[in-house]
Amino acid sequence: MRNMRMSLAPRRAVAALAAVLLAGSVAACGNSDTGGGGEGGNDKIVMGFSQVGAESGWRTANTNSIKEAAAEAGIELKFDDAQQKQENQIKAIRNYIQQKVDVIAFSPVVESGWDTVLKEAKDAGIPVILTDRAVDSADKSLYKTFLGSDFVKEGRLSGEWLIEEMKDATGDVNIVELQGTTGSAPANDRKQGFAEAIAADPKLKIIASQSGDFTRAGGKQVMEQFLKAHPKIDVLFAHNDDMGLGALEAITAAGKEPGKDIIIITIDAVKDGMQALADGKFNFIAECSPLLGPQLMDLAKKVHAGEEVAPRIEVDETTFTQEQAKEALPNRKY
Ligand code: GZL
Question: Is residue 203 part of a domain?
Fold first, then answer.
């Protein structure tokens, strides 16, 4: 068979064409979903976030902090508002698993019922970060870390202020309590911390305690019931500012002066609560910072890079009296 030798020129063209095609295919592989998570395979970290809802001023400030921090950190944020329903959070987390995000973060509306979906995320190799509220899972390997507040301390500081405030009072001091969302970590822990603190003075008595679900409407509705059922109420302890603000309407409608006839203690220190404190309608607020966004994004980058992170990271917080609120208000970020 005649030796089918090709001239050099066409061979070089063929080799050059092959090299171009090969380089192109390698580049395409290099851009595949190698680290960007989610669709498209870009190199941005993709975070799936499930938020409790939009029930309070605190939650709005928390959502703003997370969205602003994600943009600042160059993290692609998929965000879902669960409208305070656990089943919506579980659905959102399953969607994020399907979408193969790089990291999942969420604020669990209640403490229990998360093990199954968190195990699905773990089996999918997607790290989970808890923010704001905690879960009661015994298996701590189901999430990388918790970033948020010490709610027991917030309740305790509230009770300790009341002990001092009432140290010279004579006779029983009747306290009504507006609890946060039933089964949530802040409600459980704030109730515990407050009760432990006031146990030091037997004249301080909680005569009624009910959930207002962290909303203004809930606080107003339950306070109306408290006022109808109890002729002598000396103190209101509300687990957040918003329920306290709702209760203000019920108290004034009942012809009583908030901050004087009924001493009001709340938690959060959002702007509207701090204004009520400065105006003398509230008497004490224990701060609970919603500005978790920047720390959450730093943690997401560390976790995505496989770095070890502390199992629990608590945020710095303080407390406010009426005078301190007047000084702090002009500089409040939320
Ligand atoms: C506390 C947070 C609580 C706030 C409420 O970290 O979970 O939920 O205290 C909010 O205002 O609704």
Answer: yes
